[in-house]
């Protein structure tokens, strides 16, 4: 086999896996990353207080592909030695002013009685098509007007700043909102034997159902970043070169065949494979190829990560993460680190991260955000009234979360296909490819393509 010169742009976890797969075949591989450190959204940092924070809830699951899992987590012995195992993710959720303590799914029983009764009748009698792709029609067709208006609309408005009318059903999968909790657990178990109800009603506990795989989180005090660092070490052992704090500024090609790239550091690197894991419009610009006509410009939400540590233990000492669907609160997902790492050192750190999806404008007022989140954590009884902040860092990742319209989903995927067709040698991977969103799906896709 001839040795390929492979450049991988962006150093997220999908890129690192791809680098390993190419390097295992003895190709010459370089990762170009614009930041000082690799890992992208799967990074962690340790504060001066000793507490380690991730960029939100990131607890990867086994993919079920043995060879891939061996690369990601090592063999059985290494896995047991280096990772905490969770057979399911322990979560609670808050909606309509109430906690539901055994599932991340919204509990419709928190609605006023008349709306709940009406909502359940509509859910049981709705006859919408499973082929429907537009969110609003899908919701009314599967859950009825009442639950659409009193559950889904306010929640989706909170998360994406839009009503369901112009959105894709992918929103449901992305946020894990495909099912709701209603009726009793016993009735739910019976009804879930019928596919139509199985797709609408969720079990009352995350321990029910049959998850196909389990979840792993690195032992020790370094958070999920340890996983990425271990993978990176594997890549470097295989000879993968890393260029930090560097970007690609030009992509050179002739007769639609890739030649080389120029970097922000002024170097030119020959390559015959360019693996692109970042926004595709930038590749069109760097390669100076016409940008295909798309519909209305895509919209993005800004992610705010509020990392906080307190002077006393968190009030919730069991769930690994919490979901706050309640539209009266800004907080969305809360990662409770002491409950993820049953490691004594980390257990004493009383730290958490609150994720918020909002507009870029709202995210610019950091002081107000911090005060609001601190107040919400008390109101939600995640921390006690007397808890004081001993460390905080508010991280704003601008325009990172796409508002999932059907046009956006189609155009993201088309843009990466057209880019690959335009210049032979370019391949688009990761979240930027528009082919998937979740880590496991993206890693599995990369494995199937490059192994
Ligand atoms: C708010 C939020 C919540 C999420 N929650 C979940 C979840 O619960 N479960 C789940 O499975 N997935 C979740 N995801 C998705 C998950 O984080 C991604 O699937 C995963 O990080 C994919 O990684 P990636 O390698 O494609 O890209 P990224 O992690 O985004 O990495 C891209 C890398 O490219 C670098 N880069 C950017 N621009 C340039 C440039 N010009 N030149 C060079 N390098 C550049 C970046 O610095 C970064 O290191 C979430 C994503 C977001 C935004």
Structure write-up:
- The protein has 3 domains: 5-58 and 224-292 and 405-450, FAD/NAD(P)-binding domain (3-Layer(bba) Sandwich); 109-198, protoporphyrinogen ix oxidase, domain 3 (Orthogonal Bundle), CATH 1.10.3110; 298-402, Polyamine Oxidase, Chain A, domain 2, CATH 3.90.660.
- The model has no long low-confidence stretch (mean pLDDT 95).
- The chain has a 7-stranded mixed sheet.
- The protein has helices at 13-24, 66-73, 76-82, 113-125, 135-160, 170-175, 185-191, 195-198, 225-237, 280-287, 337-340, 344-347, 366-379, 406-422, 439-450; strands spanning 5-9, 28-32, 44-46, 52-54, 83-86, 91-95, 98-100, 215-218, 241-243, 248-254, 257-263, 268-270, 273-276, 300-310, 321-324, 333-336, 351-358, 389-402, 426-428.
- It is globular, with a radius of gyration of 23 Å.
- It is α/β, with parallel strands linked by helices.
- Flavin-adenine dinucleotide is lined by residues 9-15, 32-35, 38, 40-42, 56-57, 247, 277-278, 303, 355, 400-401, 430-431, 437-439, 442.
- Spell out which ligands are present: flavin-adenine dinucleotide
Overall CATH architecture of the largest domain: 3-Layer(bba) Sandwich
Considering the protein shown, what is the CATH homologous superfamily of the largest domain?
Answer: FAD/NAD(P)-binding domain
CATH third-tier fold name of the largest domain: FAD/NAD(P)-binding domain
Briefly note the structural class of the backbone: alpha/beta
User: Mean pLDDT score, rounded?
Assistant: 95
Question: How would you sum up the global shape?
Answer: globular
End-to-end separation in angstroms reads: 14 Å
CATH domain class of the largest domain: Alpha Beta
Estimate the strand proportion. Answer: 15-25%
Individual helix count: 15
The low-pLDDT segments are none
Number of domains: 3
Q: Calculate Rg over CA atoms.
A: 23 Å
Helix content: 25-40%
| Largest sheet composition | 7 strands, mixed
Compute the number of strand runs. Answer: 19
Strand order of the largest sheet: 7-6-15-16-17-14-18
